[in-house]
Amino acid sequence: MTISILLADDHEIFRHGLQMLLDSQPDFQVVGQAANGLEAVALAERLRPDVLIVDLIMPGLNGIEVTSQIKERLPGCRVVVLSLYDDERYVVSALQNGADGFVLKDTNTLDLLQAVRIAMVGQCFLSPSLIKRAVQGYIKHAQASELDGYDRLTNRESEVMRLSLDGLTCTQIAGRLGISARTVETHRANLMHKLELHSHAELVAYANKHKIIP
């Protein structure tokens, strides 16, 4: 199967160099070139390529706007966005508008070839450095979410948590706080739910991890 490709980039030398790279692949065929966003949309509608490789910053329409229009008019066309910029706002916007890949121009040329092939099987490709940043962001978000649970505890729930960590029973905590043991049990159940914990051992481990124990 030969994959037909349309190139859209406002730099002629870069565009021709890219065509030479793609045409060197036995399963690729560049069927057209566009120098701006409006031309890219018009050519795509006429040529109906399997894949559109589009620069992020172009006159007329930028790469994200082109992606949005192509996905609306030619849902079967895969779109790979090329960019000099690794700003996550561009990456997210491109993906939200239907891009099947986001490749940085300063990356290995093999990444672009891989992006085209991966897009053709319905998957999304990101340059390795973008994947690394995405993973780091995911980990950071997960860690923040864990702390968010603690931040949502009421003052009373925090008191019950700290006294539980001191080894006090519900009855002892009730006497210390001047409330009923049943109320203590309710606060304990609520805080365990907010922290997504299921046992006292998990509560101790959570407190140690986040340095909550006095």
Q: What name does CATH use for the topology of the largest domain?
A: Rossmann fold
The sequence of SSEs as H and E is EHEHEHEHEHEHHHHH
Strand content: 5-15%
What does the oligomeric state look like here? single chain
Task: Compute the separation of the termini in Å.
Answer: 66 Å
Q: Give the overall silhouette.
A: rod-shaped
Structure description:
The chain is α/β, with parallel strands linked by helices and 214 residues long. It folds into two domains: 131 residues, Response regulator (Rossmann fold, 3-Layer(aba) Sandwich); 58 residues, Orthogonal Bundle (Arc Repressor Mutant, subunit A), CATH 1.10.10. 57% of the residues lie in helices and 14% in strands. The protein is built from ten helices and six strands; from the N terminus they run βαβαβαβαβαβααααα.
Could you provide a short overview of the structure?
The chain is of the alpha/beta class and 214 residues long. The protein has helices spanning 12-23, 37-47, 63-73, 88-96, 109-120, 128-151, 155-165, 170-177, 181-194, 200-209; strands at residues 3-8, 28-34, 51-55, 78-83, 101-104, 125-126.
SSE layout and pairings?
Blueprint: E1 3-8, H1 12-23, E2 28-34, H2 37-47, E3 51-55, H3 63-73, E4 78-83, H4 88-96, E5 101-104, H5 109-120, E6 125-126, H6 128-151, H7 155-165, H8 170-177, H9 181-194, H10 200-209
Helix pairs in contact: 2-3, 7-9, 8-9
Characteristic terms for this protein:
214 residues; 2 domains; 10 helices; 57% helix
